[in-house]
Amino acid sequence: MSGEATTTEAPTTEVTPAVAEGAKPEDTLGDAGKKALEAERAARAKAETDYKVLAAKLTEIEDRDKTAEEKAAKRLAEAEKGATAAEARANRAEVAATTSVPVAVLAGPESSSAEDIAKFAALVTAYATEASKKTPTGPVIPGQGTQPASAALPADDFLRASARG
To answer: pTM higher than 0.70, yes or no?
Structure first.
């Protein structure tokens, strides 16, 4: 070890300022540390505010899209209901034409209210009364109601009729 200088380094220990009990950590910072901490807190507050604004916008966009979907679903349901009603009207008209039963009777009551059901019952009664006048009720028996050409004779009338001759 002739020309070499040996140096021994003392171990370095990190010096941390002593924090007094009950003191806030920022009290131990210098002016630069305090400014950095305040800037960080301001940035965090701004980020939280921005987050809330963006979250509200996202919710608004989702609701707007959902509303458009709901509107489309409502229009579809109304179109299907209209198509079903048109098909029912066409079917009733076809049956009314072939059976001579009025469309109003085939349609049934307009709603389930007592007033509409009473109107429908009156309509059915009027139709049934009119229809019974047009067609006889009960089975049709050929020759019913007509008198035979000759009346049946009792047994002694038969003998007298044969004697006359």
So the answer is: no
Query: 92 and 51 share a domain?
Result: yes
Residue among 115, 90, 118, 93 at smallest CA distance from 104? 93
5 in any annotated domain? no
Range of the domain at 56: 26-99
The residues near 124 (Cβ < 8 Å, ≥ 6 apart) are 105
Residues 32 and 95 both lie in one domain: yes
**SS3 assignment, position 102:** coil
CB 77 within 8 A of CB 69: no
* C-alpha span between 79 and 7 (Å, rounded): 94
CA proximity to 109, closest of 91, 123, 127: 123
Q: What is the pLDDT of residues 79-114, one digit of tens each?
A: 999 999 999 899 988 988 888 888 888 888 888 888
